[in-house]
Task: structure prediction
Amino acid sequence: MKLNTINKEGIDRLMEIFYEKIRRDKDLGAIFNAKVGTDDEAWQNHKAKISNFWQGMLLGQGNYNGQPMKVHIELPSFPREFFDTWLKLFEKSLNQVFNEEMSMVILQRAQMIARNFQNVLYARR
Ligand code: HEM
Result:
């Protein structure tokens, strides 16, 4: 059943579904596997970290205290269009877990963050 509320269980489910899609994506898979690793333990750690990130964003809880902007600046550069793929996979995953209203709330946060990242990563010099 699709959740009509945002809670930790829903976010954890979202992480499982989203990062399975990411790992299989022809463009994004390689970028993530190069950084996160390819074994399941590394991916469990990654999913737990990003779950905490979203718990912080959406619920004001969790233990995430990293620097996402810095992490993405330091990745090997990749085409801007990859953000569209990221967002599409995220939206599909949201729709598998949350109802339409909650999916929209979370998607809007993701779009905002994605826009901030892109403004910095692809700023004209
Ligand atoms: C095409 C777009 C993106 C790519 C290729 C990408 C790639 C990555 C990779 C490879 C990592 C792992 C870095 C590491 O473990 O060293 C990472 C971490 C992370 N990403 Fe992304 N990302 C993208 C978009 C986003 C967006 C839109 C968000 C948020 C809405 C996001 C949130 C995060 C967070 C919170 C981390 C953890 C940072 C930390 O280690 O503290 N990413 N990303």
Residues 13 and 97 are 7 Å apart (CA to CA). Residues 8-121 form a domain with the Globin-like fold (CATH 1.10.490.10). The chain is about 70% helix and 0% strand. The mean pLDDT is 97.
